[in-house]
Specification:
By secondary structure, this protein is an all-alpha fold. 72% of the residues lie in helices and 0% in strands. The protein folds into 2 domains: 60 residues, Orthogonal Bundle (Arc Repressor Mutant, subunit A), CATH 1.10.10.60; 131 residues. Helix 2 crosses helix 3, helix 5 runs antiparallel to helix 6 and helix 7 packs across helix 8. The protein is elongated, with a radius of gyration of 19 Å. The N and C termini lie far apart (54 Å).
Length: 191
Amino acid sequence: MGRPRVRDKILLAAAELLEQKGVTGLTTRGVAQQAGVTEASIFNNFRDKAGLLQALLKEQMSEFTLFSESLAEPVEPDLSAWLGRVFIAAHNYFRIVLPLAGPQLSSGRPARTAQPRESYMGHSALKNRLVELQKLGLIKCSVDASAIALLLMGAAMHSALTTATLGDDALGDENSLVQGVSGALCKLMEV
């Protein structure tokens, strides 16, 4: 069996530290120590802590995978049901991401990542799927896919933040919330 790549060792160490100590205990020095690599290896592979966290979320945590899989699910025959599944997956993703993003958000400085500046990966993936659906004639071509993606992801982020801070029942019945969000967006997009 081959030796694990340095990048993989770093991601595994970061996931372990995150589980053991939470986001405040996740430092580049601590990750390097846990992985048995130099701190420079982290910066060479991920540019900074934000890049490491982004890679960790995308590659090691199932919530982003589940969100991505929900995007690929069939839309027909019920666009509203598909939007509901995407909303739930996005909500669950944000329940994990928001606590991790807390220190960055409270710093008041934009994150610098190793990837080119564009909207965050969830919004981009949803926007791209909506554009695909437009080309297939399943949603209106006149709809701004980026705006719809922003509305759905914003609603999911807001619901995740609200339930994380005020409790799971803060927004009322989950089914009603999902149906309300997906139904409203569906009315904007249906052909």
